Amino acid sequence: MKKVLIISAVIFALFVSCKKETTTAPEITPSAPKEAEIVEPSGKQCYSYSGNDNFVDLSFNVNSHQEVNGTLSYNYTGKDKNEGILVGNMKGDTLIAEYTFTSEGISSVREVAFLNRDATFIEGYGETVEANDKITFKDKSKLKFDQKNVLTKVDCKD
């Protein structure tokens, strides 16, 4: 009988020790839900470069989907002026767009890239290929951004 009592006591002790201890956890106050970040259209932005009688003007709008549309014009000494429309996307800090322009009476399309740095845009250059009547960059990851023609932010002309 003693053995039965001892075995019963041991089994009872095991059940009691395995029982989960209920303690009151500290109260967690939920923080206010974070609002979804909405990128507002930035309005018209204008940038310009002038030096050595060379001029570059860039103006565009960016919508909430980072789509860009605007105008771009180049007026280099000794070359015909070309100006046209710009349609593309902001990808991080880089504007990649198709530039449809007229020069010497001929309409052309070429890809352009500009790097946004400290309220400036720096034009990118790289190896290009021609396909479907468009000139595009062969490898955008190998673009070089030349500091010689830095477009600075200017007031937009209406």
Describe, in plain words, how this protein is organized in 3D.
With about 160 residues, the protein is mainly beta. It is about 10% helix and about 55% strand. Strand 5 and strand 6 (about 105-115) form a beta hairpin. The N and C termini lie far apart (about 105 Å). About 15% of the residues are buried.
In short:
With 158 residues, the chain is mostly beta strands. The protein has one helix at residues 2-18, and strands spanning 43-51, 54-62, 67-75, 82-91, 94-103, 106-117, 120-125, 128-131, 134-137, 144-153.
Task: Write a concise keyword list for the protein shown above.
mainly beta, eight-stranded antiparallel beta barrel, 53% strand
Number of strands: 10
Span between N and C termini? 105 Å
Q: Helical proportion? A: 10-25%
- Rg calculated over all Cα atoms: 33 Å
Sheet with most strands: strand arrangement: 1-2-3-4-5-6-7-10
